[in-house]
Amino acid sequence: MRELWRVTAPGGMLILPTYLQGETSALFRPFLSLYQYFGFRPYWKFTLGSYRAFLLDMGLPVQVSRVVGAVPVGLAVCQKPN
After folding, report:
1. SS3 assignment, position 77
2. Residue 23 CB-density burial (10 A; 0-12 exposed, 13-18 middle, 19+ buried)
3. Distance between CA atoms of 69 and 78, rounded to whole angstroms?
4. Per-residue CA distances from 63 to 27, 39, 42, 55, 57 (Å)
5. What is the per-residue pLDDT across 21-64, written as a single tens digit (0 to 9) for each?
6. Closest Cα partner for 8 from 47, 58, 48?
7. Nearest to residue 62, comparing CAs of 12, 14, 11?
């Protein structure tokens, strides 16, 4: 993330979507277990708050919003100053 931010041009925007697996609906959890059985092992299971904190800890000026779904998406937008 830091490298992506470093190469973002002044005035540019960095858009960082990720699944919020920590907020997965109960109906979708069995599918996540199936993915894990086949080798998909997420390093983090973000919630909206933990994703925001993760990016802020990296020093990114970020606004994060939730896109609703069976597995919600955290959509982070970082605007680099001119």
Report:
1. strand
2. buried
3. 23
4. 28, 32, 23, 10, 13
5. 888 877 777 877 787 788 877 777 899 999 999 999 999 999 99
6. 58
7. 14
